[in-house]
Amino acid sequence: MAVIYVPYGTTEGQTAKIAEFISEVIQAHGHKAQTADINQAGNLIPDWYDAVIVGASVHQGKHEDYVLEFVRKNKAVLESVPSAFFSVSLSAHGDTEDAESYVKDFEKETGWRPAQVGLFSGALLYTQYGFIKRLVMKKIASDKGSLDTDTSRDYVYTEWDGVKRFAEDFLDRATTPGEML
Fold first, then answer.
1. Same domain for 13 and 44?
2. Per-residue pLDDT for the chain (181 aa), expressed as one digit of tens each?
3. What burial letters (b/e) apply to 52-84, b meaning 16+ CB within 10 Å?
4. Cys-Cys crosslink for 15: which of 57, 65, 148, 168, Cβ 3.0 to 4.6 Å?
5. 91 within 8 A of 50, measured Cβ to Cβ
6. For residue 119, which phi and psi values (nearest 5 degrees)?
7. CB of 38 within 8 A of CB of 10?
8. Which residue range forms the structural domain that includes residue 58?
């Protein structure tokens, strides 16, 4: 049984939901998992974990600075245990080229090249935004050709089957005898 740490950075909460879902998938396969909001848990990976899956969301074209700092600080650990990275953005819903470029920038800024990367669509949470942000996000959605501009409701684009496959693929790699653990 592996013990897997799932630290994440989130701005509006969708990355936290995805991290929790990954944790549930891991536990359903007989392993232990613990999620942690990096802002609250601190900058170090505890040494009792067998593997790590880091998650971050993209806002205004980049991942959270504190997640970049976390990865830079823990790069040696991330390279010594099975590890993966997942990125959450609205771009993953439509323009995967942009979503991929965010991950390339992340890798360049941190120096960490994860063996496995997941690109997951986020959410438009109009009902949680303030007035100005709601208008800005509606304009962005409209400019990208989206019909999802009714600001009285939220739109969740995360493909949960893809998140499940990502977690299961990670488990297959991380728990194969002679492979990583």
1. yes
2. 889 999 999 988 999 999 999 999 999 999 999 999 999 988 888 888 999 999 999 987 889 999 999 999 999 999 999 999 999 987 767 667 777 888 999 999 999 999 999 999 888 889 988 899 888 888 888 877 777 888 888 888 899 999 999 999 999 988 775 544 4
3. bbbbbbbeeeebbeebbebbeebeebbeebbbb
4. 57
5. no
6. -110, 115
7. no
8. 3-122+160-175
Query: Do residues 129 and 106 share a domain?
Result: no
d(CA 59, CA 164): 24
One-letter amino acid at 156 equals V
In this structure, the answer to whether residues 74 and 96 fall within a common structural domain is yes
Residue 51 CB neighbours (<10 A) = 24
CATH number of 52's domain: 3.40.50.360
- Pair 115, 144 in one domain: no
Cα–Cα distance list, 156 to 78, 109, 159 (Å): 30, 29, 9
| Sequence-separated (6 or more) residues with CB below 8 Å from residue 167 | 21, 22, 25, 26, 53
